[in-house]
Amino acid sequence: MHSNQLDPMSLLTLLAVARTGRYVTAADLLDINHTTASRRIAALERALGGRLLSRGTRGWEPTDLGRTALAAAEQIETTINGLRTESTDALQGTVRIAATEGFSAKIIAPVAARIGADNPRLSIDLITVTRRAPASYSGVDIEIVVGKPTTYRVESKPLGSYRLGLYGSVDYLKTAGTPRSRDDLAAHPLVYFIESMLTVDDLDQARAQLPPMAHRLSCTNVLIHVEATRAGVGIGLLPCYLAQDHSDLVRVLADEVFLDLDYWMVVRPEAARRREVAVIANALRLQVQAAASQLNGAIPQADAAPD
Q1: Residue 240 predicted with pLDDT over 70
Q2: Of the given ranges (16-25, 84-93, 124-133, 180-189), which has the lowest mean pLDDT?
């Protein structure tokens, strides 16, 4: 390693590429061109004596050596941000969050609006995804996952629980009939996740409560589950806090079929030291607490529609 050849700007460029997964996007954030970003990373790899990035499924991801360099880059970023904010309390920089679609719409969006109004130089990159918590650095500062993470390389804390329940549209239930028991569900198609693509065990538990049901429309996006159910595709297994926003959806078998799941927040230790990450993480906790009754399905709806 030739430490005398290390360039702080090259380290910050590495940080930007690792967070975004793309050279072009990182270059835009740093107000440089793609060629300059590539040249800085190449120079840094020569100075450190090895590859810092490798191409993964979500773009460029750090190698083991890259993760070591990123720790130094984050210290530089923290120092620079500290100097910038000596005369102001305003937050700035970019916080990258990965979360499920429903959580993003109901929790993250209002937090981003509220914090962003007071911190115009702060930006949030939001990636909507339903997956297990990553076992290593993924370029994401905060990740919201369903179910307790099994990895020990990141800091994880429970956020709160939410309830899944069965819903049908008023028109659908009038035409197809309202299920009165679990056995009646076999006559209805289910709107839920694509079974072969579901990687979250806790979400798969809900399906185990149900009898075999046809799959007329399966999808990886929970917001489409809601809209498909409203359109009359079938009976949707939906987060109650999303379904309750629609007066044309009716809860069925509320006392017999439901599943309470937990949201967990995963924050990398390096990211947790950044003030903007800590502020947003705390704001997300407070937003979940404020929405607890809605997340748990406490807002009542009719249990059945007329046949």
Answers
A1: yes
A2: 84-93
Q: Contact at 8 Å (CB) between 292 and 260?
A: no
Q: Helices 109-118 and 275-290: crossing angle, nearest 10°?
A: 130
- Nearest-CA neighbor of 229 among 174, 197, 190, 259? 190
Report the pLDDT averaged over residues 212-221.
Answer: 89
C-alpha distances in angstroms, 49 versus 56, 58, 70?
21, 25, 15
Interatomic CA distance for residues 165 and 150, integer angstroms: 26
Shortest CA distance to 13 belongs to which of 63, 64, 72, 81? 72
Rama region for 271: left / alpha / beta (φ>0; ψ in -120 to 50; rest): alpha
DSSP per-residue codes, 171-203: HHHHHH----STGGGGGS-EEE--GGG---HHH
- 298 closest CA partner among 222, 235, 240, 223: 240
Helix (H) or strand (E) run with residue 129 in it: none
Burial state string for 206-228 with b = 16 or more CB within 10 A and e = fewer than 16: bbeebeebeeebbbeebbbbbeb
Is residue 134's pLDDT more than 70?
no
- What is the rounded distance in angstroms from the CA atom of residue 219 to the CA atom of residue 197? 9
Contacts of 251 (CB under 8 A, 6+ apart): 165, 166, 167, 240, 243, 301, 302, 303
Q: What are phi and psi of 305, to 5 degrees?
A: -110, 155
DSSP-derived letter for residue 252 is: E
Sequence-ordered alpha helix ranges (H) in 178-302: 201-208, 222-230, 240-243, 269-272, 275-290, 292-295
The pLDDT, as a whole number, for residue 291 is 87
Strand 142-146 and strand 92-99: the pairing is parallel
What is the per-residue pLDDT across 276-285, written as a single tens digit (0 to 9) for each? 899 999 999 9
Average pLDDT, the chain: 84
Question: Which two tokens mark 106?
Answer: 């109901």
